[in-house]
Write a structure and sequence with these properties.
Chains A, B: Belongs to the 3-hydroxyacyl-CoA dehydrogenase family. Two copies of one chain form a homodimer. By secondary structure, chain A is an alpha/beta fold. Helices cover 54% and strands 11% of the residues of chain A. Chain A has an eight-stranded mixed sheet with strand order 3-2-1-4-5-6-7-8. At the A-B interface, β8, α8, α9, α10 and α11 of A face β8, α8, α9, α10 and α11 of B.
C-alpha cells in the first residue's frame, strides 16, 4: 500500500500541493493549525478540481478529492508519511517553529520538503534531529498548472533525501530541477529578478511603457520560452549553435550589462508610476478576476502542452 | 487599390516578412541583389506556407503566394511601395550601402523599416534625403509565428512614419511595441540579455546544469510569460498588486543584482563547457531538425493562442 503524503499548511500553496499528489493517486493527509484555513481548504480544492475537469486535465474531481483527508493533528498528517510538504507562511521564525514541531513527530525515514520560495532550509532546520531529511522543494503557483519544482538541499541534507524528493516529483508529473547549493532566490527567482531589473530600468528611463515591455515578452520572448529554455533558444539562433551565438552577441550583452553595474533600489516614485499605469489598465478590485483568467489560460496551455508533446511523440 | 509592400533582402528574415504581408492580403514585391538568394526564396516561402496551412493558420498557400511578386530591380520593389521592409545582412556598412540606393529610388511618402536587431537606424540613415521616413521595425524570427515587432525611430524620424509603421503592423496581425529612443539591443534583446547573463553566471558557478536552468524557464517562468508580460505577472503575484509585490521582493532582487555588479565576458572555457553540454544533448548535425521542431511547436502555439483569445472573447 502506498504511504500517504503529509501536507502541513493548508493555504493557497498547500491546497495546490494536495491536488498535485491526489491527482497522481497518492493518499494525502492535510493539517493546518488555523481552523479558518482548514474550513476554506476543502472548498478551494473542490473548485480547482472542477476547473481542471472542465479543461479535461483530470477525469473525476470526486475520485481525486476522496484521496484527500483532513486531519486534526500534526502527528496524524506526518506520522506515517513517506513525504511531507510544508507550506506555512514564509517567515523564518514561522518556519523554525513548525520544523521544531515536525521534528518531534516525524518518522526517521520521512523526507520533508519546504515550499519556501526564498528562505534556504539551513535557516530553519539547523540543530534538528532529522535535519538530514529536510530540504527546499519550491513550486510555482499553482503547482498543478506550472510543473517546475526547485529542489534545494541544505548543506546537511543527505543525498538519498534529494533523490527521493526528485523521484517523487517526477512520479507526480512535476518537473524537478536541482539547485546544487543554497543561493538567495534559488534559480527561478534569480532569473525572474534579472529580467525584471532590466524591465524596471527601461521603464524608469522612458524607453517604453509598461504595457509595451509586457508585450515584448508575451508576444515575443515568452513564446519560445514556454516550451524551451533560454540556452536552447540561443543554441538554435545561430548557425553554429550556442558557441557561435556567444561569439556573435557576447560583446553586445556585456556592454548592456556594464550599463547596469550600479543597481539601485526601485524608488517609491518609480513604483508609484508603475502602479498608476497598471491600475489604469486593471483596477485593484479586478485583480482577483484577472487571476482567475490567468489560471484559465494556464489550464488551457497545460492541456495544449500535453497534446503537443503527444503529437511530437515526446 | 492597395499600394504594394516592398521587401529588400530575400533571405530568412525577408521571406518571413513576405509571408506576413501577403497573408494579410497585401501585394508584395521582393528584390535581392543576390541571384542565389532569389532562387531559394520562392521554395522557402512555399514550404513555409504549406506548413502554415497544415496548422490551419492560413487557408490557401496558393492564394497567399500569388500576391508575392519577385522583381529584377530595387526600383521595381520600392518605387510604388507604401511601406518598404529592409532585411539585408546585419552589418553597418552593408546597411549604409543599401539605404543610399533605396534613397535614390524611393517615393517621398514611403516609410522604410529596417529589420535590424541591434544597429540603430541613425547609424545608416544619416544624411539621406528621406531619412525622416526611415526607422527600425525589428521582428523576431520567424515573424509570421512570433508577432512582436519593435518600432525604434531615429532622432530624425518623423512622427507620421512611426504612426504609419505601427498602424501597418497592427493591420497585418503583428504586435508593435514602441521603443521611444534608440538604445543598444532595443528592449527585446536587453531583456533576453539580462536573463541570459544571470543564467550563464548560475551555470558557471555550478548551481545548476544548463538543462535544469532551461527547464526552470520552459516548465516555469515561460508558461506565464507566453501570454502575459513580466509586469502583469508580478501584478497578479501579490494581494495588493505590483506596488505590494515591489515592497515585498524589492530587497531580495536588489541583493541579487548587487552580487552581479561586476559583469565579465563569458569566458572561452565557460562557452566550451556549455557547448559540450548542449552538443551532448543535441549533436551539431541535428540543429536544423530541431529548428524545424521549434517552428512546428510555435505554429501549434499560434493556433492555440488564437483559439484561447477567441474563447476569452478578446
Amino acid at each position: 500500500m502506498t504511504r500517504p503524503v503529509g501536507i502541513v499548511g493548508a493555504g493557497l500553496v498547500g491546497s495546490g500541493w494536495a491536488i498535485v499528489f491526489a491527482r497522481a493517486g497518492y493518499p494525502v493527509r492535510v493539517f493546518d493549525s488555523d481552523a479558518r484555513t482548514m474550513a476554506t481548504f476543502a472548498e478551494r480544492v473542490r473548485g480547482n478540481l472542477e476547473d481542471l475537469a472542465r479543461y479535461e486535465l483530470i477525469d473525476s474531481p470526486d475520485a481525486v478529492f476522496e484521496r484527500v483527508e483532513m486531519v486534526d493533528t500534526l502527528e496524524q498528517a506526518v506520522g506515517e508519511a513517506d513525504h511531507v510538504q510544508e507550506s506555512v507562511f514564509e517567515r523564518t521564525d514561522v518556519k523554525q517553529a513548525i520544523y521544531r514541531q515536525i521534528d518531534e513527530v516525524v518518522g526517521a525515514d520521512t523526507v520533508v520538503g519546504s515550499s519556501s520560495s526564498g528562505i534556504p532550509a539551513s535557516e530553519f532546520t539547523d540543530g534538528l534531529d532529522h535535519r538530514e531529511n529536510y530540504l527546499v522543494v519550491h513550486p510555482v503557483n499553482p503547482p498543478y498548472l506550472v510543473p517546475v519544482v526547485e529542489i534545494v538541499p541544505a548543506p546537511w541534507t543527505r543525498a538519498e533525501a534529494v533523490e527521493r524528493a526528485t523521484t517523487l516529483m517526477e512520479a507526480v508529473g512535476q518537473v524537478p530541477v536541482l539547485v546544487r547549493r543554497e543561493v538567495a532566490g534559488f534559480v527561478l527567482n534569480r532569473l525572474q529578478g534579472a529580467l525584471l531589473r532590466e524591465a524596471w530600468a527601461l521603464y524608469e528611463e522612458g524607453y517604453a511603457s509598461l504595457e509595451d515591455i509586457d508585450k515584448t515578452v508575451s508576444a515575443g520572448l515568452g513564446r519560445r520560452w514556454s516550451f524551451m529554455g533560454p540556452f536552447e533558444t540561443i543554441d538554435l539562433n545561430a548557425p553554429g549553435g550556442i558557441s557561435d551565438y556567444a561569439e556573435r552577441l557576447g560583446g553586445l550583452y556585456l556592454d548592456i550589462a556594464r550599463q547596469r553595474s550600479d543597481p539601485q533600489p526601485w524608488s517609491r516614485n518609480l513604483i508609484a508610476r508603475a502602479d498608476a499605469e497598471r491600475r489604469g489598465a486593471l483596477p485593484k478590485e479586478s485583480l482577483g478576476e484577472r487571476t482567475k483568467w490567468r489560471d484559465r489560460r494556464l489550464m488551457a496551455l497545460s492541456a495544449f502542452m500535453a497534446r503537443s508533446r503527444e503529437a511530437e511523440g515526446e
